[in-house]
TrEMBL record:
One of its GO terms (biological process) is carbohydrate metabolic process. Residues 17-253 form the Glycoside hydrolase family 65 N-terminal domain. It comes from Paenibacillus lutimineralis. GO terms for molecular function: carbohydrate binding; glycosyltransferase activity; hydrolase activity, hydrolyzing O-glycosyl compounds. Substrate binds at residues 351-352, 607-608. This is Glycoside hydrolase family 65 protein.
Length: 780
């Protein structure tokens, strides 16, 4: 991958590759994927290759391909493929190709690919492809192709249309559907998902010219799940063939289609395509680029002046994907663990959203954070269903969530067990339960940072109170210790299954209940309608009795020998092995070549952050000495096989004063998708780590934290950073920050008084605050 192709205005905005390898297609497909939150399009090349993955996902359109499968985002029809022939020879960029560049321009969210190709007879043509998925009109995919005959006259043939012969790794989600071509021009494909019965409508139009003359009599082909138009002609040397292809994608899940018949939806979709056709690629592109400028780059105003250009590029890459992956338009939808860029994790939402991605939205775009939390509110139905079917009360959030009311969507069987040869059972959907407290924690964080009382009244309190009800029914009384335990769980570290008293889970469950008690008391005192409604719904008086009974008796693992907190009851008794090989691995999961998951349970090895994320989010419950001791104990045993791990470790390393380690870990976190490992992104982007990049910059290096509802800023920039600029929203007001090695400047854009803490000193201001960091840190 190349990051230095952008020059001038485009410097540090271009993610590119400068050669084509047909055996390493997945990386660019995912890393350069396009999206607008409504849909995500993997960046497979126009001309097909063996091993490519052509994906188009529309957020929220979950379907079960058969009763044994879990619900997943179906891979919708492909509109990007083109069959291109020069003198009858199929275009193949893996041979006789020069000047190959495929580049994603992060600023304009446009994918551009260009190269010169020589036919086997030695004739040269130049090709240039452009495409974008509009942020201005969420239903539009626009493509453009230009082919120039460089050396000789050539015959050109391009076949393009809508291809619904796609699947999710073989699983078919759609019925055959209906096909139609209007006026030899407007292609229509209407398909329906087999179980959820969602109608998908694809409309496509081409505008093709050869040497400036329009070609409008294409050869038309229909086949099973396929409509293709082909355009052909002879190009004289120096002449150009150009094809513009505009597609609109709509589904019956679209809010604006509520209550409409299929025919009405189709008519609407077709007329919106016609409007697009009247505008053409360039005009649509200008509007799309403006939307990115206004709604992303101007809004977030993130800038890093670093001696290493990669840093700002990585930050922009994160903002790009955070925008592309997030269904901000519809609160019935969550963020998928791979965004909309690949089949991995089937489009499901995990704790990745609440703990890794949501902080970005809470601080930078609270409206979107609110929508994502309403998704969890709507998910209460599924969470209550899950609690009931497991014999618990309250709301037990699914480890993997799809459509809000679905409940648990985790698969039951996974990778091969290298000892038995059978599939390994996936226990997460049953016993990885911390997600329930993570959701409650996220609601609290949102409320503290935004002060959005209406959200709490309508949604937030109910989530926090009902999740706390789950925890009281989940606790197990232990006669011997006289404490409540949480047994048989998986904590964040998924290499330890069926453990008792995972520290993260216990502390977070405790936090969840404590919060519910506080809110219960406040609500009761207010005697508000909200209290009466929730009391009736959740029997709060009873719940409070149960909370009071257990709160001081929940077992919270404490520092023991060497200040080490046991990650769970038995972790510290397991054997220790030499992990050097796995710590130095170039790609993840190599440990499974030597051990089965069951065997890993008996070794002190961790997949990912566990205690560290506890220290990060509940930082004031632990002293620095304890954090350092545990960092030093657990990090050497953590092989970071999960992409969620590195960003948290980077933040902790910075908090604990090791700036160069923090930067090294930050860099590694960025390289999960941007690094040289060419296969790591095959199944899609690592969205939690993308959210983590923003968190390391803002929560880590800038040192932003919300503590007890107060804002704290303890900046510690990497040594080679000269300046960091960004914005956050704090309780309804936009704050603009500029941090250098020795100065912090915060601007309150609405002149509303702000109180904040910098290195233990409190400041109040309502305009611009300038703090000398050297003085604040007590340095000379
Ligand atoms: C991680 C989980 C994460 C999931 C989805 C797993 O590999 O261990 O923590 O939620 O991936 O990203």
């Amino acid at each position: 991958m190349k990051y230095d192709l952008g020059t001038g205005e485009e410097k540090n905005w271009i993610v590119a590759e400068s050669s084509f390898s047909s055996s390493l297609l997945g990386k660019a497909e995912a890393v350069m994927s396009l999206g607008n939150g409504y849909m995500g399009l993997r960046s497979a090349a126009e001309e097909p290759y063996v091993g490519e993955v052509r994906n188009l996902f529309v957020a929220g359109t979950f379907n079960k391909s058969d009763a044994q499968e879990v619900s997943e985002l179906p891979n919708a029809a492909d509109v990007t493929r083109m069959n291109i022939f020069i003198d009858g020879e199929r275009l193949d960029a893996s041979v006789r190709t020069e000047d190959y560049v495929r580049a994603l321009n992060l600023k304009t969210a446009e994918l551009i690919r260009s190269f010169i190709w020589t036919t086997s007879a030695g004739k040269q043509v130049a090709l240039k492809f452009r495409r974008f998925v509009s942020l201005d009109n969420l239903h539009v995919i626009a493509m453009k192709m230009e082919l120039e005959a460089l050396s000789d006259n050539v015959d050109v043939s391009v076949e393009s249309g809508v291809n619904a012969q796609v699947s999710n790794s073989g699983a078919q989600h759609f019925f055959e559907g209906e096909k139609r071509i209007y006026d030899k021009k407007y292609v229509e494909m209407v398909t329906r998902t087999v179980e959820s019965k969602i109608d998908f409508m694809f409309h496509t139009v081409h505008h093709v010219t050869l040497a400036g003359v329009e070609l409008n009599q294409p050869f038309m082909r229909m086949d099973r799940r396929l409509i293709m138009l082909s355009y052909q002609g002879t190009l004289m040397k120096g002449q150009k063939f150009s094809l513009e292809k505009l597609t609109t994608v709509h589904t019956s899940r679209d809010k604006e289609f509520k209550g409409m018949t299929l025919q009405e939806m189709r008519d609407c979709a077709l007329s919106s395509l016609k409007q697009c056709a009247a505008e053409g690629y360039e005009k649509l592109f200008a509007r799309h680029a403006r939307a990115w400028e206004q709604r992303v780059w101007k809004l977030y105003q993130l800038n890093i002046e670093s001696q290493d250009d990669f840093d700002i590029l990585a930050a922009r890459f994160a903002l790009y994907h955070l925008t592309a992956m997030t269904p901000a338009h519809d609160e019935r939808m969550g963020i998928a663990a791979k965004g909309l860029s690949g089949e991995g994790y089937q489009g499901h939402s995990f704790w990745d959203t609440e703990m890794f991605i949501l902080p970005f939205f809470i601080y930078s775009n609270p409206e979107v954070a609110r929508s994502l939390l309403i998704y969890r509110y709507l998910g209460l139905e599924g969470a209550r269903k899950k609690a009931r079917s497991n014999g618990y009360e309250g709301a037990m959030y699914p480890w993997e969530a799809a459509w809000p009311s679905d409940g648990e969507m985790a698969q039951e069987w996974g990778r091969v067990d290298i000892v038995t040869g059978k599939q390994t059972k996936i226990w997460t959907g049953f016993i990885e339960q911390h997600i329930t407290a993570d959701v409650a924690f996220a609601v609290w964080q949102y409320y503290m940072v935004t002060a959005d009382q209406a959200f709490m009244d309508d949604y937030g309190y109910e989530i926090i109170l009902d999740t706390a009800r789950f925890w009281t029914s989940r606790l197990e009384w232990d006669e011997v210790s006289g404490q409540y335990c949480i047994n048989d769980v998986i904590g964040p570290d998924e290499y330890k299954e069926h453990v008792d008293n995972n520290a993260f889970t216990n502390y977070f469950a405790h936090f969840n209940i404590q919060l519910a008690m506080e809110y219960y008391s406040n609500l009761k005192e207010s005697d508000s309608d909200v209290f009466h409604r929730l009391n009736e719904l959740l029997d709060l008086e009873h719940a409070m009795e149960a909370w009071m009974k257990c709160i001081d008796k929940i077992y919270l693992p404490q520092p023991g020998e060497g200040l080490v907190i046991p990650q769970d009851d038995t972790y510290l008794t397991k054997r220790i092995i030499d992990l050097t090989k796995y710590k130095n691995q170039t790609h993840v999961n190599t440990i499974f070549e030597d051990y089965s998951l069951e065997q890993l349970s008996d070794i002190q090895v961790s997949k990912q952050t566990d205690l560290m994320i506890l220290f990060y989010w509940l930082e004031d419950r632990f002293t620095n000495d304890v954090k350092i001791a545990n960092y030093n104990y657990y990090e050497p045993k953590t092989i970071h096989d999960s992409s969620l791990s590195l960003s948290t470790h980077a933040i902790l390393a910075n908090d604990l004063g090791d700036r160069s380690l923090a930067y090294r870990l930050f860099r590694q976190a960025c390289e999960i998708d941007l690094g040289p490992e060419m296969k790591s992104s095959d199944l899609g982007m690592h969205t939690a780590s993308i959210g983590g990049i923003w968190q390391v910059i803002v929560m880590g290096f800038a040192g932003i934290r919300m503590l007890h509802g107060e804002l704290r800023i303890n900046p510690e920039l990497p040594e080679h950073w000269n300046k960091l600029e960004f914005m956050i929203n704090w309780q309804g007001q936009r704050l603009e920050l500029e941090i250098t090695a020795d100065q912090l400047v915060v601007k309150a854009t609405e002149q509303v008084p702000v109180k904040l803490d910098v290195y233990g000193k409190e400041y109040c201001f309502d305009d611009v605050l300038t703090v000398s960091l050297t003085e604040a840190r007590g340095e000379d």
